[in-house]
Amino acid sequence: MLVLKDEYDVIHNFMLLDAHTHLKINKLEGLVPSEFVRKFSSIVKDVAIDIKKNEKDYRFRFPWDLTDRPTDYYDYCQKDAYSIVHPGEDLRGVLDKYMGFDFIITFSANLTSSLPRDYRSANSKIREALIEKSPDDNAPHNNFRFIGFGRLDPNHSDALDAFDNAFQLGLRGLKLHPKEENFEIVGERMEEILTKAAHYNIPVIFHTQEGMAERVKEVVDNTIKSLVDTDKIQMVPRLKVILGHAPWNGVGNNGLYKILSHPNIFGEISTLRPESFAEFFSNSKSQIKYEGILESNNIFEQDWEKVEESYFRYYGYNNFNYWSSKLLFGSDTPYPPSHSVPQLIKHLFSKEFVGNATDIKNILGISALRLIPPIAKSNIQEEKEQASTSLKHHPTQLTQLKKDSKALGMDPLIDVFPCARISGAVFSFLKEGRTESWLFRSLFSPNKPMNMVIPNPHDLSDSSILTATSTLTQCIEMSLQED
Ligand SMILES: [Zn+2]
Questions:
Q1: pTM, 2 dp
Q2: Domain 2-369 listed as CATH 3.20.20.140
Q3: Res 317: pLDDT
Protein backbone atom coordinates (compact mmCIF):
# COMPACT_ATOMS: atom_id res chain seq x y z
CA MET A 1 0.00 0.00 0.00
CA LEU A 2 1.19 3.47 -0.77
CA VAL A 3 -0.80 6.41 0.60
CA LEU A 4 -0.40 9.68 -1.31
CA LYS A 5 -2.13 13.06 -1.51
CA ASP A 6 -3.23 14.69 -4.74
CA GLU A 7 -3.17 18.42 -5.48
CA TYR A 8 -6.64 18.85 -3.91
CA ASP A 9 -5.39 17.25 -0.68
CA VAL A 10 -7.47 14.14 -1.29
CA ILE A 11 -5.79 11.07 0.15
CA HIS A 12 -5.39 8.12 -2.23
CA ASN A 13 -4.71 4.65 -1.00
CA PHE A 14 -2.86 2.79 -3.76
CA MET A 15 -3.14 -0.95 -3.33
CA LEU A 16 -0.12 -2.70 -4.83
CA LEU A 17 -0.12 -6.17 -6.37
CA ASP A 18 2.66 -7.97 -8.21
CA ALA A 19 1.14 -10.37 -10.75
CA HIS A 20 4.33 -12.26 -11.66
CA THR A 21 6.85 -13.56 -9.12
CA HIS A 22 8.67 -16.81 -8.44
CA LEU A 23 8.62 -18.37 -5.00
CA LYS A 24 11.66 -20.24 -3.76
CA ILE A 25 11.04 -23.96 -3.43
CA ASN A 26 13.52 -26.85 -3.53
CA LYS A 27 16.69 -25.71 -5.29
CA LEU A 28 14.81 -23.58 -7.81
CA GLU A 29 15.29 -19.84 -8.13
CA GLY A 30 12.99 -17.51 -6.25
CA LEU A 31 12.52 -15.60 -3.01
CA VAL A 32 10.91 -16.88 0.16
CA PRO A 33 7.82 -14.97 1.36
CA SER A 34 9.66 -12.93 4.02
CA GLU A 35 12.27 -11.83 1.44
CA PHE A 36 9.47 -10.59 -0.84
CA VAL A 37 7.91 -8.59 1.98
CA ARG A 38 11.22 -6.98 2.95
CA LYS A 39 12.30 -6.28 -0.62
CA PHE A 40 8.98 -4.78 -1.71
CA SER A 41 8.71 -2.71 1.44
CA SER A 42 12.07 -1.10 0.72
CA ILE A 43 11.11 -0.48 -2.93
CA VAL A 44 7.89 1.28 -1.89
CA LYS A 45 9.74 3.36 0.71
CA ASP A 46 12.26 4.32 -1.94
CA VAL A 47 9.43 5.48 -4.23
CA ALA A 48 7.87 7.52 -1.39
CA ILE A 49 11.21 9.19 -0.65
CA ASP A 50 11.69 10.08 -4.32
CA ILE A 51 8.17 11.55 -4.55
CA LYS A 52 8.95 13.63 -1.46
CA LYS A 53 12.26 14.81 -2.79
CA ASN A 54 11.28 15.62 -6.37
CA GLU A 55 7.79 17.03 -5.86
CA LYS A 56 7.69 18.91 -9.13
CA ASP A 57 7.94 15.71 -11.19
CA TYR A 58 4.95 14.03 -9.58
CA ARG A 59 1.21 14.42 -9.68
CA PHE A 60 0.95 13.17 -6.10
CA ARG A 61 2.67 14.18 -2.88
CA PHE A 62 4.00 12.31 0.11
CA PRO A 63 3.84 15.00 2.82
CA TRP A 64 4.69 12.73 5.75
CA ASP A 65 7.90 11.57 7.39
CA LEU A 66 9.16 8.05 7.08
CA THR A 67 10.84 6.03 9.79
CA ASP A 68 13.32 3.22 9.31
CA ARG A 69 11.17 0.77 11.22
CA PRO A 70 11.37 -2.54 9.37
CA THR A 71 8.20 -4.42 8.49
CA ASP A 72 7.29 -7.20 10.89
CA TYR A 73 6.72 -10.11 8.54
CA TYR A 74 4.15 -12.07 10.53
CA ASP A 75 2.21 -8.94 11.44
CA TYR A 76 2.16 -7.85 7.83
CA CYS A 77 1.08 -11.17 6.35
CA GLN A 78 -1.31 -12.29 9.03
CA LYS A 79 -2.21 -10.02 11.88
CA ASP A 80 -2.46 -6.76 10.00
CA ALA A 81 -3.94 -7.98 6.74
CA TYR A 82 -7.08 -6.40 8.09
CA SER A 83 -5.44 -3.05 7.38
CA ILE A 84 -6.36 -3.45 3.74
CA VAL A 85 -9.89 -2.58 4.78
CA HIS A 86 -9.17 -0.45 7.83
CA PRO A 87 -5.69 1.01 7.66
CA GLY A 88 -6.32 2.23 11.19
CA GLU A 89 -7.38 5.40 12.89
CA ASP A 90 -3.92 6.76 12.89
CA LEU A 91 -2.36 7.58 9.54
CA ARG A 92 1.09 7.72 11.10
CA GLY A 93 0.80 4.05 12.03
CA VAL A 94 -0.41 3.18 8.52
CA LEU A 95 2.51 4.82 6.82
CA ASP A 96 4.96 3.07 9.05
CA LYS A 97 3.50 -0.37 9.07
CA TYR A 98 1.87 -1.00 5.76
CA MET A 99 4.30 0.25 3.21
CA GLY A 100 4.78 -2.54 0.77
CA PHE A 101 2.96 -4.78 -1.66
CA ASP A 102 -0.50 -5.80 -0.50
CA PHE A 103 -0.66 -8.91 -2.67
CA ILE A 104 1.88 -11.05 -4.45
CA ILE A 105 0.94 -13.61 -7.10
CA THR A 106 3.58 -16.29 -7.07
CA PHE A 107 4.47 -19.61 -8.67
CA SER A 108 7.40 -21.95 -9.07
CA ALA A 109 10.36 -21.30 -11.39
CA ASN A 110 10.92 -23.70 -14.32
CA LEU A 111 11.68 -27.25 -13.30
CA THR A 112 15.07 -28.46 -14.47
CA SER A 113 14.01 -32.06 -15.15
CA SER A 114 13.67 -33.38 -18.72
CA LEU A 115 10.52 -32.83 -20.80
CA PRO A 116 7.63 -33.43 -20.36
CA ARG A 117 7.57 -32.15 -16.79
CA ASP A 118 5.40 -33.10 -13.87
CA TYR A 119 4.72 -30.00 -11.74
CA ARG A 120 2.48 -31.68 -9.19
CA SER A 121 5.00 -31.86 -6.39
CA ALA A 122 6.30 -28.33 -7.13
CA ASN A 123 2.71 -27.07 -6.89
CA SER A 124 2.18 -28.65 -3.50
CA LYS A 125 5.48 -27.16 -2.30
CA ILE A 126 4.15 -23.73 -3.33
CA ARG A 127 1.06 -24.41 -1.29
CA GLU A 128 3.13 -25.46 1.72
CA ALA A 129 5.39 -22.43 1.47
CA LEU A 130 2.37 -20.17 1.83
CA ILE A 131 1.25 -21.60 5.15
CA GLU A 132 2.47 -19.63 8.15
CA LYS A 133 2.68 -20.71 11.77
CA SER A 134 1.46 -18.22 14.32
CA PRO A 135 4.33 -17.27 16.68
CA ASP A 136 1.98 -17.41 19.68
CA ASP A 137 0.65 -20.94 19.41
CA ASN A 138 2.20 -22.41 16.25
CA ALA A 139 -1.25 -22.67 14.62
CA PRO A 140 -1.07 -22.90 10.81
CA HIS A 141 -2.72 -20.18 8.72
CA ASN A 142 -2.83 -19.42 5.03
CA ASN A 143 -0.68 -16.41 4.24
CA PHE A 144 -3.12 -13.61 3.37
CA ARG A 145 -0.71 -11.64 1.23
CA PHE A 146 0.31 -14.28 -1.27
CA ILE A 147 -1.79 -15.75 -4.07
CA GLY A 148 -0.29 -19.03 -5.23
CA PHE A 149 -0.59 -20.20 -8.84
CA GLY A 150 0.05 -23.71 -10.12
CA ARG A 151 2.12 -24.73 -13.13
CA LEU A 152 1.82 -27.59 -15.57
CA ASP A 153 3.35 -28.90 -18.76
CA PRO A 154 0.53 -29.48 -21.31
CA ASN A 155 2.61 -32.19 -22.99
CA HIS A 156 2.66 -34.30 -19.85
CA SER A 157 0.08 -37.09 -20.02
CA ASP A 158 -1.22 -36.15 -16.55
CA ALA A 159 -1.46 -32.41 -17.27
CA LEU A 160 -5.24 -32.24 -16.71
CA ASP A 161 -4.86 -34.15 -13.48
CA ALA A 162 -2.13 -31.73 -12.41
CA PHE A 163 -4.61 -28.91 -13.06
CA ASP A 164 -7.33 -30.50 -10.87
CA ASN A 165 -4.68 -31.09 -8.27
CA ALA A 166 -3.55 -27.45 -8.25
CA PHE A 167 -7.15 -26.32 -7.89
CA GLN A 168 -7.76 -28.70 -5.00
CA LEU A 169 -4.64 -27.36 -3.29
CA GLY A 170 -6.29 -23.94 -3.32
CA LEU A 171 -3.98 -22.43 -5.94
CA ARG A 172 -5.90 -19.65 -7.64
CA GLY A 173 -4.38 -19.44 -11.08
CA LEU A 174 -2.22 -21.24 -13.59
CA LYS A 175 1.11 -20.34 -15.20
CA LEU A 176 2.11 -21.85 -18.55
CA HIS A 177 5.47 -21.49 -20.28
CA PRO A 178 5.27 -22.39 -24.01
CA LYS A 179 8.95 -21.74 -24.65
CA GLU A 180 10.39 -23.55 -21.67
CA GLU A 181 8.05 -26.55 -21.92
CA ASN A 182 8.07 -26.39 -25.71
CA PHE A 183 4.36 -26.93 -26.38
CA GLU A 184 1.97 -25.82 -29.10
CA ILE A 185 -0.18 -22.89 -28.01
CA VAL A 186 -2.90 -23.44 -30.59
CA GLY A 187 -4.51 -26.85 -30.36
CA GLU A 188 -7.03 -29.11 -28.73
CA ARG A 189 -4.96 -29.71 -25.62
CA MET A 190 -4.80 -26.00 -24.82
CA GLU A 191 -8.55 -25.65 -25.47
CA GLU A 192 -9.14 -28.39 -22.90
CA ILE A 193 -6.96 -26.60 -20.37
CA LEU A 194 -8.62 -23.24 -20.99
CA THR A 195 -12.10 -24.76 -20.75
CA LYS A 196 -11.15 -26.23 -17.39
CA ALA A 197 -9.79 -22.84 -16.31
CA ALA A 198 -13.14 -21.25 -17.19
CA HIS A 199 -14.90 -24.00 -15.26
CA TYR A 200 -12.75 -23.32 -12.19
CA ASN A 201 -12.97 -19.56 -12.78
CA ILE A 202 -9.20 -19.21 -12.51
CA PRO A 203 -6.91 -17.03 -14.62
CA VAL A 204 -4.16 -18.48 -16.82
CA ILE A 205 -0.94 -16.54 -17.37
CA PHE A 206 1.20 -17.51 -20.37
CA HIS A 207 4.85 -16.62 -20.68
CA THR A 208 4.80 -14.75 -24.01
CA GLN A 209 7.42 -13.15 -26.25
CA GLU A 210 7.78 -12.23 -29.92
CA GLY A 211 4.55 -13.13 -31.63
CA MET A 212 3.16 -15.57 -29.06
CA ALA A 213 0.36 -13.10 -28.26
CA GLU A 214 -1.27 -13.79 -31.66
CA ARG A 215 -1.34 -17.53 -31.00
CA VAL A 216 -2.76 -17.05 -27.53
CA LYS A 217 -5.54 -14.92 -29.05
CA GLU A 218 -6.24 -17.66 -31.59
CA VAL A 219 -6.63 -20.39 -28.97
CA VAL A 220 -8.76 -18.11 -26.77
CA ASP A 221 -11.11 -17.47 -29.71
CA ASN A 222 -11.28 -21.17 -30.54
CA THR A 223 -12.11 -21.97 -26.92
CA ILE A 224 -14.82 -19.32 -26.81
CA LYS A 225 -16.30 -20.68 -30.01
CA SER A 226 -16.53 -24.19 -28.63
CA LEU A 227 -18.04 -22.91 -25.35
CA VAL A 228 -20.68 -21.04 -27.34
CA ASP A 229 -21.31 -23.99 -29.68
CA THR A 230 -21.88 -26.29 -26.72
CA ASP A 231 -24.36 -23.89 -25.10
CA LYS A 232 -22.02 -22.71 -22.38
CA ILE A 233 -22.14 -19.01 -23.17
CA GLN A 234 -22.32 -18.17 -19.43
CA MET A 235 -18.82 -19.64 -19.05
CA VAL A 236 -17.32 -17.21 -21.57
CA PRO A 237 -16.50 -14.33 -19.17
CA ARG A 238 -14.86 -16.81 -16.80
CA LEU A 239 -12.11 -17.39 -19.32
CA LYS A 240 -9.32 -15.04 -18.21
CA VAL A 241 -6.05 -15.24 -20.07
CA ILE A 242 -3.04 -13.08 -19.21
CA LEU A 243 -0.17 -12.39 -21.61
CA GLY A 244 2.89 -12.54 -19.34
CA HIS A 245 5.63 -10.08 -20.36
CA ALA A 246 3.11 -8.48 -22.78
CA PRO A 247 5.54 -5.70 -23.87
CA TRP A 248 7.93 -8.41 -25.12
CA ASN A 249 5.47 -8.88 -28.01
CA GLY A 250 6.48 -5.42 -29.23
CA VAL A 251 5.76 -2.02 -27.67
CA GLY A 252 5.38 -0.61 -31.19
CA ASN A 253 3.30 -3.56 -32.41
CA ASN A 254 -0.26 -2.31 -32.96
CA GLY A 255 -1.46 -5.91 -33.12
CA LEU A 256 -0.57 -6.33 -29.43
CA TYR A 257 -2.97 -3.57 -28.35
CA LYS A 258 -5.71 -4.99 -30.54
CA ILE A 259 -5.27 -8.36 -28.81
CA LEU A 260 -5.38 -6.63 -25.41
CA SER A 261 -8.75 -5.13 -26.41
CA HIS A 262 -10.17 -8.66 -26.41
CA PRO A 263 -12.41 -8.91 -23.33
CA ASN A 264 -10.85 -12.20 -22.20
CA ILE A 265 -7.21 -11.19 -22.64
CA PHE A 266 -5.09 -9.15 -20.22
CA GLY A 267 -1.46 -8.05 -20.26
CA GLU A 268 1.09 -8.39 -17.47
CA ILE A 269 3.72 -5.72 -18.07
CA SER A 270 7.07 -7.09 -16.81
CA THR A 271 9.92 -6.63 -19.35
CA LEU A 272 8.70 -3.08 -20.04
CA ARG A 273 11.88 -1.00 -20.20
CA PRO A 274 12.20 2.58 -18.89
CA GLU A 275 12.80 3.96 -22.41
CA SER A 276 9.44 2.47 -23.51
CA PHE A 277 7.24 3.47 -20.53
CA ALA A 278 5.78 6.54 -22.24
CA GLU A 279 5.23 4.85 -25.61
CA PHE A 280 3.65 1.71 -24.14
CA PHE A 281 1.13 3.51 -21.95
CA SER A 282 0.19 6.05 -24.58
CA ASN A 283 -0.32 3.27 -27.16
CA SER A 284 -2.32 1.29 -24.59
CA LYS A 285 -4.53 4.25 -23.82
CA SER A 286 -5.25 5.06 -27.45
CA GLN A 287 -5.46 1.52 -28.82
CA ILE A 288 -6.92 -0.78 -26.14
CA LYS A 289 -10.55 -0.03 -26.89
CA TYR A 290 -13.74 -1.13 -25.26
CA GLU A 291 -15.18 -1.29 -28.78
CA GLY A 292 -12.53 -3.97 -29.36
CA ILE A 293 -14.97 -6.41 -27.78
CA LEU A 294 -17.11 -5.99 -30.89
CA GLU A 295 -14.26 -7.03 -33.12
CA SER A 296 -13.87 -10.33 -31.37
CA ASN A 297 -15.66 -12.19 -34.14
CA ASN A 298 -16.75 -15.40 -32.46
CA ILE A 299 -18.58 -13.59 -29.72
CA PHE A 300 -20.01 -10.89 -31.92
CA GLU A 301 -22.17 -13.29 -33.90
CA GLN A 302 -23.91 -14.39 -30.71
CA ASP A 303 -26.53 -12.66 -28.64
CA TRP A 304 -24.41 -9.55 -28.28
CA GLU A 305 -26.34 -7.73 -25.54
CA LYS A 306 -26.31 -10.78 -23.34
CA VAL A 307 -22.59 -11.23 -23.79
CA GLU A 308 -21.80 -7.59 -23.14
CA GLU A 309 -23.95 -7.52 -20.03
CA SER A 310 -22.29 -10.59 -18.62
CA TYR A 311 -18.81 -9.16 -19.21
CA PHE A 312 -19.83 -5.93 -17.54
CA ARG A 313 -21.32 -7.69 -14.57
CA TYR A 314 -18.41 -10.05 -14.31
CA TYR A 315 -15.51 -7.64 -14.46
CA GLY A 316 -17.26 -4.48 -13.33
CA TYR A 317 -15.71 -2.75 -16.31
CA ASN A 318 -15.73 0.97 -16.48
CA ASN A 319 -15.80 2.11 -20.08
CA PHE A 320 -13.59 5.13 -19.32
CA ASN A 321 -10.78 3.12 -17.81
CA TYR A 322 -11.14 0.01 -19.94
CA TRP A 323 -7.57 0.20 -21.24
CA SER A 324 -5.97 0.22 -17.80
CA SER A 325 -8.27 -2.52 -16.51
CA LYS A 326 -6.53 -4.77 -19.06
CA LEU A 327 -3.00 -4.10 -17.71
CA LEU A 328 -1.45 -5.85 -14.72
CA PHE A 329 1.70 -4.76 -12.94
CA GLY A 330 4.23 -7.59 -12.70
CA SER A 331 7.94 -7.79 -11.85
CA ASP A 332 9.14 -11.34 -12.66
CA THR A 333 11.15 -11.25 -9.40
CA PRO A 334 13.86 -12.53 -8.95
CA TYR A 335 14.72 -12.31 -12.68
CA PRO A 336 16.21 -9.26 -14.46
CA PRO A 337 12.89 -7.66 -15.61
CA SER A 338 12.32 -6.86 -11.92
CA HIS A 339 15.21 -4.38 -11.93
CA SER A 340 13.06 -1.65 -13.49
CA VAL A 341 10.27 -1.95 -10.89
CA PRO A 342 11.11 1.21 -8.89
CA GLN A 343 11.31 3.28 -12.09
CA LEU A 344 8.02 1.88 -13.37
CA ILE A 345 6.14 2.71 -10.18
CA LYS A 346 7.66 6.20 -10.21
CA HIS A 347 6.59 6.67 -13.83
CA LEU A 348 2.98 5.80 -12.97
CA PHE A 349 2.85 8.52 -10.29
CA SER A 350 4.73 11.08 -12.37
CA LYS A 351 3.30 13.88 -14.48
CA GLU A 352 4.44 12.01 -17.59
CA PHE A 353 1.98 9.14 -17.13
CA VAL A 354 -1.00 9.41 -19.52
CA GLY A 355 -3.70 8.03 -17.20
CA ASN A 356 -5.61 9.25 -14.13
CA ALA A 357 -5.70 7.94 -10.54
CA THR A 358 -8.09 5.12 -11.45
CA ASP A 359 -5.78 3.99 -14.24
CA ILE A 360 -2.87 3.86 -11.80
CA LYS A 361 -4.94 1.89 -9.31
CA ASN A 362 -6.04 -0.52 -12.02
CA ILE A 363 -2.51 -1.18 -13.24
CA LEU A 364 -0.97 -1.44 -9.78
CA GLY A 365 -3.42 -4.03 -8.54
CA ILE A 366 -7.15 -3.71 -9.11
CA SER A 367 -7.00 -5.19 -12.65
CA ALA A 368 -5.34 -8.34 -11.34
CA LEU A 369 -7.58 -8.66 -8.28
CA ARG A 370 -10.65 -8.69 -10.52
CA LEU A 371 -9.40 -11.94 -12.06
CA ILE A 372 -8.69 -13.86 -8.86
CA PRO A 373 -11.49 -16.22 -7.81
CA PRO A 374 -12.79 -15.64 -4.27
CA ILE A 375 -12.17 -18.10 -1.44
CA ALA A 376 -15.21 -17.19 0.61
CA LYS A 377 -18.35 -19.22 0.60
CA SER A 378 -21.75 -17.73 1.24
CA ASN A 379 -23.06 -17.86 4.82
CA ILE A 380 -26.63 -17.41 3.71
CA GLN A 381 -27.77 -20.78 5.09
CA GLU A 382 -25.88 -20.28 8.31
CA GLU A 383 -26.20 -17.94 11.25
CA LYS A 384 -26.82 -14.43 10.04
CA GLU A 385 -24.75 -12.49 12.54
CA GLN A 386 -21.61 -13.77 10.89
CA ALA A 387 -21.60 -10.86 8.50
CA SER A 388 -20.39 -7.55 9.85
CA THR A 389 -23.32 -5.15 9.92
CA SER A 390 -21.92 -1.67 9.73
CA LEU A 391 -19.12 0.60 8.71
CA LYS A 392 -17.36 0.13 12.03
CA HIS A 393 -14.07 -1.32 13.04
CA HIS A 394 -14.28 -4.88 14.23
CA PRO A 395 -10.97 -5.49 15.92
CA THR A 396 -12.40 -7.69 18.67
CA GLN A 397 -14.32 -10.03 16.40
CA LEU A 398 -11.36 -10.44 14.14
CA THR A 399 -8.98 -11.16 17.01
CA GLN A 400 -11.44 -13.66 18.41
CA LEU A 401 -11.82 -15.37 15.04
CA LYS A 402 -8.11 -15.56 14.55
CA LYS A 403 -7.75 -17.09 17.97
CA ASP A 404 -10.09 -20.00 17.65
CA SER A 405 -10.05 -20.73 13.95
CA LYS A 406 -7.72 -21.12 11.00
CA ALA A 407 -7.43 -18.33 8.48
CA LEU A 408 -8.33 -19.54 5.00
CA GLY A 409 -7.93 -16.26 3.20
CA MET A 410 -9.23 -12.87 2.32
CA ASP A 411 -11.31 -11.76 -0.67
CA PRO A 412 -11.08 -8.03 -1.27
CA LEU A 413 -14.23 -6.39 -2.66
CA ILE A 414 -13.63 -3.99 -5.49
CA ASP A 415 -15.34 -0.71 -6.27
CA VAL A 416 -15.11 0.50 -9.83
CA PHE A 417 -16.98 3.79 -9.50
CA PRO A 418 -16.28 6.60 -8.74
CA CYS A 419 -12.80 5.20 -8.46
CA ALA A 420 -11.25 1.76 -8.54
CA ARG A 421 -10.39 0.64 -5.04
CA ILE A 422 -10.96 -1.94 -2.34
CA SER A 423 -14.12 -1.12 -0.45
CA GLY A 424 -14.11 -4.03 1.92
CA ALA A 425 -13.00 -7.60 2.31
CA VAL A 426 -14.43 -10.95 3.17
CA PHE A 427 -12.25 -12.89 5.60
CA SER A 428 -12.80 -16.64 5.68
CA PHE A 429 -11.96 -18.93 8.56
CA LEU A 430 -12.16 -22.60 9.21
CA LYS A 431 -13.88 -23.18 12.51
CA GLU A 432 -14.81 -26.62 13.79
CA GLY A 433 -14.67 -28.01 10.28
CA ARG A 434 -16.86 -25.32 8.75
CA THR A 435 -15.97 -22.32 6.64
CA GLU A 436 -17.12 -19.01 8.09
CA SER A 437 -16.90 -15.84 6.05
CA TRP A 438 -17.10 -12.34 7.45
CA LEU A 439 -17.60 -9.19 5.47
CA PHE A 440 -15.70 -6.12 6.61
CA ARG A 441 -16.49 -2.85 4.92
CA SER A 442 -15.07 0.66 4.60
CA LEU A 443 -11.61 1.85 3.93
CA PHE A 444 -10.76 4.33 6.61
CA SER A 445 -12.16 5.07 10.01
CA PRO A 446 -15.69 6.53 9.73
CA ASN A 447 -14.58 9.24 12.17
CA LYS A 448 -11.88 10.32 9.79
CA PRO A 449 -13.30 9.72 6.33
CA MET A 450 -10.31 11.43 4.76
CA ASN A 451 -12.25 12.65 1.77
CA MET A 452 -13.16 9.16 0.66
CA VAL A 453 -16.69 8.45 -0.51
CA ILE A 454 -18.67 6.08 1.73
CA PRO A 455 -17.99 2.66 0.26
CA ASN A 456 -20.48 0.68 -1.65
CA PRO A 457 -19.41 -2.96 -1.91
CA HIS A 458 -19.29 -4.18 -5.45
CA ASP A 459 -19.31 -7.75 -6.62
CA LEU A 460 -15.86 -9.17 -6.95
CA SER A 461 -17.11 -11.82 -9.27
CA ASP A 462 -20.10 -13.70 -10.44
CA SER A 463 -19.15 -17.21 -9.61
CA SER A 464 -21.90 -19.73 -10.10
CA ILE A 465 -19.73 -22.46 -8.65
CA LEU A 466 -19.54 -20.81 -5.24
CA THR A 467 -23.18 -19.82 -5.00
CA ALA A 468 -26.14 -21.21 -6.82
CA THR A 469 -28.19 -18.14 -7.65
CA SER A 470 -26.55 -15.03 -6.24
CA THR A 471 -23.04 -13.74 -6.07
CA LEU A 472 -21.04 -13.86 -2.88
CA THR A 473 -21.62 -10.22 -2.07
CA GLN A 474 -25.31 -10.38 -2.92
CA CYS A 475 -25.71 -13.21 -0.44
CA ILE A 476 -23.95 -11.31 2.30
CA GLU A 477 -25.84 -8.13 1.48
CA MET A 478 -29.14 -10.00 1.63
CA SER A 479 -28.29 -11.42 5.01
CA LEU A 480 -27.44 -7.91 6.20
CA GLN A 481 -30.83 -6.59 5.12
CA GLU A 482 -32.64 -9.32 6.95
CA ASP A 483 -31.04 -8.31 10.26
ZN1 LIG B 1 8.70 -15.41 -14.73
A1: 0.85
A2: yes
A3: 63
